[in-house]
Design goal:
Length: about 80
């Protein structure tokens, strides 16, 4: 079991072992939920995780694809619903 502490600013450091196992990097987004009195942190999908998932006859450059995926991921996971 691993422990961490809450800072005066309300920040929590995720231990290196857990960051390595989950491949978490600076600026990665985490979903925060309260479930049965517990705080649950879950990594949100990264844009690069979905490359090659969609099949199409059109040629779409990576820059445009990233823009489209980012828009839809942000829409799906935004708090303002």
């Amino acid at each position: 079991m691993t422990y961490t502490a809450l800072s005066e600013k309300g920040q929590v450091v995720i231990p290196k072992l857990i960051r390595n196992v989950l491949d978490l990097n600076p600026s990665d987004k985490l979903q925060v939920e309260i479930v049965s009195g517990r705080i649950i942190l879950s990594p949100l999908p990264q844009i690069n995780d979905v490359f090659g998932v969609f099949k199409t006859q059109k040629i779409v450059d990576k820059k445009r694809m990233k823009e489209i995926i980012k828009k839809h991921v942000n829409k799906k996971f935004s708090r303002s619903k």
